[in-house]
Design a protein that fits this description.
Shape: globular
CATH superfamily: LmbE-like
Helix content: 40-55%
Strand content: 15-25%
Order of helices and strands: EHEHHEHEHEHEHHE
Distance between the termini: 18 Å
CATH class: Alpha Beta
Oligomer: single chain
Number of helices: 8
Number of strands: 7
Largest sheet: 7 strands, mixed
Strand order of the largest sheet: 3-2-1-4-5-7-6
């Protein structure tokens, strides 16, 4: 039996934030997990804090790549199963055709049982582009795979989570995976993303992200399509 799953992350960190506990759990259960990082994450400091140097986007790209390597290793991922497509952070919607070609090859080469990718109402354009890319490839190629969608932050941040939580009461296809045994691993992995949780530039007055604690839940939630 093929026990392979693929997690598509728009940026270096989304795989751990949205699926870190599930990745660790699946690996412990004998699954082979592949993580595909769609963009290079180079523009996060510029977008959020206006920082263009110290570090430069090119330097930040390498920092974030090293961070996700360390984080996924903690979760149990083999280094050869971490794939970087290296599209420029923030431009994925302009590269969807090329990205679809690369995702098509990855799916054909690996024939996974399950795929994990962001929800279509996630906040960042790269997240929504990743959703379209993976969904379109699966549909066009009639790939027989279970589709799990994870949410990092709702597109409509103020009212979206409230409305979404209410609608979840009536939705089918919502799965909550118990990852309580792997929370400590996930926490350790999340702490590797120091470029987001600490001050790494002389031009910073605050960290880019104060905390990842809201992602440390005993159960990770997914919207599933068969």
């Amino acid at each position: 039996m093929n026990k392979k799953i693929i997690v598509f992350a728009p940026h270096p960190d989304d795989e751990t934030l949205g699926c870190g506990g599930t990745i660790a759990k699946k690996i412990a259960e004998g699954y082979e997990v592949i993580v595909v990082v769609m963009t290079d994450g180079r523009n996060s400091l510029f977008k959020d804090l206006g920082i263009e140097s110290d570090p430069s986007p090119e330097e930040l790209k390498e920092i974030r790549k090293d961070e996700v390597k360390r984080a996924t290793k903690i979760l149990g991922l083999r280094v050869e199963n971490l794939l970087f497509l290296d599209f420029v952070d923030g431009t994925l919607d302009k590269c969807e055709s090329e990205a679809q070609d690369k995702v098509t090859k990855i799916l054909r080469d690996n024939t996974p049982l399950e795929t994990y990718y962001p929800h279509e109402k996630d906040c960042h354009p790269d997240h929504r582009a990743t959703n379209r890319i993976v969904r379109n490839v699966i549909g066009k190629n009639r790939v027989l795979v279970t589709k799990w969608r994870y949410m990092i932050a709702h597109k409509y941040a103020r009212i979206g989570p409230l409305i979404g939580g209410f609608l979840d009461l009536f939705r089918r296809g919502i799965v909550r995976i118990d990852v309580s045994k792997y929370l400590s691993l996930k926490k350790t992995a999340l702490n590797e993303f120091r470029s987001e949780l600490s001050i790494i530039s002389t031009k910073q007055s605050r960290p880019r992200t104060k905390t990842f604690m809201r992602f440390l839940k005993r159960r990770e939630k997914f919207y599933i399509d068969s």
